Amino acid sequence: MDIRGLLEQVKNNDIDIDIAMEKLKDLPYEDIGYANIDHHRQIRNGYPEVIYCEGKSDEHILGIIKKMSEKGSNILGTRCRKETYEKIKSLYPHCEYEDLSRILKIQNKPVENVGKGKIVVVTGGTSDIPVADEAYYTATFLGNDVERVYDVGVAGIHRLLNKMNIIRDARVLIVVAGMEGALPSVVGGLVDVPVIAVPTSVGYGANFNGLSALLTMLNSCASGISVVNIDNGFGAGYLAATINKLD
Protein backbone atom coordinates (compact mmCIF):
# COMPACT_ATOMS: atom_id res chain seq x y z
CA MET A 1 0.00 0.00 0.00
CA ASP A 2 1.14 3.55 -0.82
CA ILE A 3 0.81 5.05 2.70
CA ARG A 4 2.24 8.41 1.63
CA GLY A 5 -0.27 8.69 -1.21
CA LEU A 6 -3.11 7.80 1.14
CA LEU A 7 -2.03 10.45 3.65
CA GLU A 8 -1.80 13.02 0.85
CA GLN A 9 -5.38 12.17 -0.13
CA VAL A 10 -6.55 12.71 3.46
CA LYS A 11 -4.60 15.97 3.68
CA ASN A 12 -6.18 17.23 0.44
CA ASN A 13 -9.67 16.11 1.49
CA ASP A 14 -9.78 13.71 -1.46
CA ILE A 15 -10.68 10.80 0.78
CA ASP A 16 -12.73 10.52 3.97
CA ILE A 17 -10.84 9.72 7.19
CA ASP A 18 -13.11 6.73 7.88
CA ILE A 19 -12.32 5.27 4.45
CA ALA A 20 -8.61 5.80 5.06
CA MET A 21 -8.91 4.03 8.42
CA GLU A 22 -10.63 1.11 6.68
CA LYS A 23 -7.70 0.82 4.27
CA LEU A 24 -5.23 0.85 7.16
CA LYS A 25 -7.04 -1.59 9.44
CA ASP A 26 -4.99 -4.64 8.37
CA LEU A 27 -1.65 -2.93 9.03
CA PRO A 28 1.03 -3.70 10.01
CA TYR A 29 0.08 -7.31 9.25
CA GLU A 30 -3.03 -9.27 8.38
CA ASP A 31 -3.84 -12.55 10.14
CA ILE A 32 -5.63 -14.91 7.73
CA GLY A 33 -5.36 -17.97 9.94
CA TYR A 34 -2.59 -19.87 8.17
CA ALA A 35 -0.41 -16.81 7.50
CA ASN A 36 0.35 -13.38 8.95
CA ILE A 37 0.87 -11.22 5.88
CA ASP A 38 3.36 -8.43 6.56
CA HIS A 39 1.87 -5.50 4.61
CA HIS A 40 4.27 -3.07 6.32
CA ARG A 41 7.44 -4.77 5.10
CA GLN A 42 7.83 -2.46 2.11
CA ILE A 43 7.68 0.57 4.42
CA ARG A 44 10.35 -0.90 6.71
CA ASN A 45 12.62 -2.64 4.20
CA GLY A 46 11.81 -1.01 0.90
CA TYR A 47 10.47 -4.24 -0.64
CA PRO A 48 7.18 -6.12 -0.23
CA GLU A 49 6.96 -9.52 1.41
CA VAL A 50 8.04 -12.43 -0.81
CA ILE A 51 6.12 -15.72 -0.90
CA TYR A 52 8.21 -18.86 -0.45
CA CYS A 53 5.93 -21.30 -2.27
CA GLU A 54 7.67 -24.59 -1.54
CA GLY A 55 5.78 -26.52 1.15
CA LYS A 56 2.67 -24.36 0.86
CA SER A 57 -0.60 -25.65 -0.58
CA ASP A 58 -1.99 -24.03 -3.72
CA GLU A 59 -4.93 -22.74 -1.68
CA HIS A 60 -2.66 -21.04 0.84
CA ILE A 61 -0.55 -19.43 -1.89
CA LEU A 62 -3.66 -18.17 -3.67
CA GLY A 63 -5.04 -16.81 -0.40
CA ILE A 64 -1.86 -14.86 0.30
CA ILE A 65 -1.76 -13.52 -3.27
CA LYS A 66 -5.38 -12.38 -2.97
CA LYS A 67 -4.71 -10.38 0.20
CA MET A 68 -1.49 -8.84 -1.14
CA SER A 69 -3.19 -7.91 -4.42
CA GLU A 70 -5.97 -6.18 -2.51
CA LYS A 71 -3.27 -3.90 -1.06
CA GLY A 72 -1.81 -3.25 -4.51
CA SER A 73 1.48 -5.01 -3.74
CA ASN A 74 3.71 -6.46 -6.40
CA ILE A 75 4.09 -10.17 -5.77
CA LEU A 76 7.18 -12.33 -6.05
CA GLY A 77 6.94 -16.06 -5.35
CA THR A 78 9.97 -18.33 -5.17
CA ARG A 79 10.22 -22.12 -5.69
CA CYS A 80 6.75 -22.14 -7.25
CA ARG A 81 5.45 -25.32 -8.90
CA LYS A 82 4.42 -25.05 -12.56
CA GLU A 83 1.04 -26.57 -11.69
CA THR A 84 0.50 -23.89 -9.04
CA TYR A 85 1.36 -21.18 -11.55
CA GLU A 86 -1.26 -22.51 -13.97
CA LYS A 87 -3.94 -22.17 -11.28
CA ILE A 88 -2.78 -18.65 -10.38
CA LYS A 89 -2.63 -17.63 -14.05
CA SER A 90 -6.31 -18.53 -14.49
CA LEU A 91 -7.21 -15.97 -11.81
CA TYR A 92 -4.47 -13.39 -12.43
CA PRO A 93 -3.86 -13.29 -16.21
CA HIS A 94 -0.94 -10.86 -15.89
CA CYS A 95 0.97 -13.40 -13.78
CA GLU A 96 4.37 -14.42 -15.20
CA TYR A 97 6.47 -17.53 -14.58
CA GLU A 98 10.12 -18.38 -15.20
CA ASP A 99 10.49 -22.13 -15.73
CA LEU A 100 14.13 -22.69 -14.78
CA SER A 101 14.15 -20.54 -11.66
CA ARG A 102 10.53 -21.36 -10.70
CA ILE A 103 9.96 -17.65 -10.03
CA LEU A 104 6.39 -16.35 -10.04
CA LYS A 105 5.74 -12.63 -10.65
CA ILE A 106 2.62 -10.49 -10.47
CA GLN A 107 3.20 -6.82 -11.16
CA ASN A 108 0.30 -4.79 -9.80
CA LYS A 109 2.07 -1.44 -10.10
CA PRO A 110 5.14 -0.11 -11.93
CA VAL A 111 8.52 -1.15 -10.55
CA GLU A 112 10.73 1.83 -9.80
CA ASN A 113 14.39 1.41 -10.70
CA VAL A 114 16.08 2.11 -7.36
CA GLY A 115 19.49 0.59 -8.14
CA LYS A 116 22.44 2.96 -8.31
CA GLY A 117 24.36 0.76 -10.71
CA LYS A 118 24.37 -2.59 -12.46
CA ILE A 119 24.20 -6.03 -10.85
CA VAL A 120 25.94 -8.80 -12.78
CA VAL A 121 25.15 -12.48 -12.18
CA VAL A 122 27.97 -14.88 -13.07
CA THR A 123 27.87 -18.68 -13.14
CA GLY A 124 30.51 -21.35 -13.22
CA GLY A 125 28.48 -23.68 -15.44
CA THR A 126 25.21 -24.06 -17.30
CA SER A 127 23.92 -26.39 -14.57
CA ASP A 128 24.05 -23.46 -12.15
CA ILE A 129 21.59 -21.39 -14.21
CA PRO A 130 18.39 -22.27 -12.27
CA VAL A 131 19.89 -20.81 -9.07
CA ALA A 132 21.46 -17.90 -10.95
CA ASP A 133 18.16 -17.08 -12.65
CA GLU A 134 16.46 -17.02 -9.24
CA ALA A 135 18.94 -14.32 -8.27
CA TYR A 136 18.56 -12.52 -11.59
CA TYR A 137 14.76 -12.33 -11.53
CA THR A 138 14.70 -11.41 -7.84
CA ALA A 139 17.08 -8.48 -8.32
CA THR A 140 15.25 -7.37 -11.49
CA PHE A 141 11.86 -7.54 -9.74
CA LEU A 142 13.25 -5.34 -6.95
CA GLY A 143 14.12 -2.55 -9.39
CA ASN A 144 17.64 -3.15 -10.68
CA ASP A 145 19.48 -3.26 -13.97
CA VAL A 146 20.84 -6.83 -14.05
CA GLU A 147 23.05 -8.57 -16.60
CA ARG A 148 23.96 -12.26 -16.89
CA VAL A 149 27.35 -13.81 -17.66
CA TYR A 150 26.90 -17.58 -17.69
CA ASP A 151 29.21 -20.62 -18.03
CA VAL A 152 32.56 -18.96 -17.33
CA GLY A 153 33.91 -21.34 -14.67
CA VAL A 154 37.50 -22.02 -13.67
CA ALA A 155 37.78 -25.11 -15.90
CA GLY A 156 38.19 -22.63 -18.76
CA ILE A 157 39.31 -19.41 -17.11
CA HIS A 158 39.79 -17.67 -20.48
CA ARG A 159 35.98 -17.54 -20.77
CA LEU A 160 35.83 -15.43 -17.59
CA LEU A 161 38.66 -13.15 -18.69
CA ASN A 162 36.89 -12.48 -21.99
CA LYS A 163 33.90 -11.09 -20.02
CA MET A 164 35.82 -8.86 -17.62
CA ASN A 165 34.58 -5.69 -19.32
CA ILE A 166 31.02 -6.61 -18.26
CA ILE A 167 32.04 -7.88 -14.84
CA ARG A 168 34.08 -4.75 -13.99
CA ASP A 169 31.09 -2.60 -14.96
CA ALA A 170 29.06 -4.03 -12.05
CA ARG A 171 28.33 -2.28 -8.77
CA VAL A 172 27.54 -5.64 -7.17
CA LEU A 173 28.39 -9.16 -8.38
CA ILE A 174 26.56 -12.40 -7.71
CA VAL A 175 28.80 -15.38 -8.45
CA VAL A 176 27.10 -18.78 -8.58
CA ALA A 177 29.07 -22.04 -8.68
CA GLY A 178 28.86 -25.70 -7.76
CA MET A 179 31.52 -28.43 -7.89
CA GLU A 180 34.45 -27.11 -5.82
CA GLY A 181 33.06 -23.56 -5.80
CA ALA A 182 36.28 -21.75 -6.71
CA LEU A 183 34.83 -19.10 -9.04
CA PRO A 184 33.90 -16.43 -6.43
CA SER A 185 37.47 -16.44 -5.10
CA VAL A 186 38.84 -15.86 -8.59
CA VAL A 187 36.34 -13.09 -9.35
CA GLY A 188 36.88 -11.52 -5.92
CA GLY A 189 40.57 -11.12 -6.68
CA LEU A 190 39.84 -9.24 -9.91
CA VAL A 191 37.25 -6.64 -8.86
CA ASP A 192 36.78 -3.80 -6.36
CA VAL A 193 33.05 -4.26 -5.65
CA PRO A 194 31.10 -6.57 -3.31
CA VAL A 195 30.88 -10.19 -4.42
CA ILE A 196 27.98 -12.34 -3.22
CA ALA A 197 28.91 -16.01 -3.53
CA VAL A 198 26.21 -18.62 -4.06
CA PRO A 199 27.16 -22.29 -3.70
CA THR A 200 24.97 -24.72 -5.63
CA SER A 201 24.26 -28.40 -5.10
CA VAL A 202 25.64 -29.14 -8.58
CA GLY A 203 28.44 -31.70 -8.46
CA TYR A 204 29.45 -35.31 -8.01
CA GLY A 205 29.30 -37.36 -4.80
CA ALA A 206 32.06 -35.67 -2.79
CA ASN A 207 30.39 -32.35 -3.51
CA PHE A 208 27.98 -33.39 -0.71
CA ASN A 209 25.03 -31.57 -2.34
CA GLY A 210 26.82 -28.23 -2.31
CA LEU A 211 28.63 -28.46 1.01
CA SER A 212 32.07 -28.55 -0.61
CA ALA A 213 31.30 -25.41 -2.62
CA LEU A 214 29.91 -23.69 0.48
CA LEU A 215 33.06 -24.44 2.51
CA THR A 216 35.31 -23.25 -0.33
CA MET A 217 33.47 -19.94 -0.52
CA LEU A 218 33.47 -19.47 3.26
CA ASN A 219 37.23 -20.08 3.26
CA SER A 220 37.97 -17.78 0.33
CA CYS A 221 41.25 -15.90 0.55
CA ALA A 222 39.85 -13.10 -1.63
CA SER A 223 38.46 -10.13 0.30
CA GLY A 224 35.04 -8.53 -0.06
CA ILE A 225 33.09 -11.78 -0.47
CA SER A 226 29.87 -12.65 1.36
CA VAL A 227 28.30 -16.10 1.12
CA VAL A 228 24.63 -17.13 1.14
CA ASN A 229 23.23 -20.60 1.68
CA ILE A 230 23.35 -23.46 -0.82
CA ASP A 231 21.10 -22.84 -3.86
CA ASN A 232 19.83 -19.58 -2.30
CA GLY A 233 19.60 -17.47 -5.43
CA PHE A 234 16.76 -15.46 -3.93
CA GLY A 235 18.85 -14.45 -0.92
CA ALA A 236 21.70 -13.37 -3.18
CA GLY A 237 19.42 -11.32 -5.44
CA TYR A 238 17.78 -9.64 -2.46
CA LEU A 239 21.13 -8.81 -0.82
CA ALA A 240 22.53 -7.46 -4.09
CA ALA A 241 19.46 -5.25 -4.54
CA THR A 242 19.81 -3.94 -0.98
CA ILE A 243 23.48 -3.08 -1.54
CA ASN A 244 22.81 -1.54 -4.94
CA LYS A 245 20.28 0.99 -3.64
CA LEU A 246 22.67 2.38 -1.01
CA ASP A 247 24.17 5.81 -1.69
Automatic annotation (TrEMBL):
Superkingdom classification of source: Bacteria
One GO-annotated biological process of the protein: 'de novo' IMP biosynthetic process
GO molecular function: hydrolase activity
Signal peptide limits: none
SUPFAM superfamilies for this protein: N5-CAIR mutase (phosphoribosylaminoimidazole carboxylase, PurE)
Pfam family membership, one: AIRC
PurE domain residues: 117-246
NCBIfam families cross-referenced by the UniProt entry: LarB (NF033503)
Name assigned to this protein: Nickel pincer cofactor biosynthesis protein LarB
Gene source species: Paraclostridium bifermentans
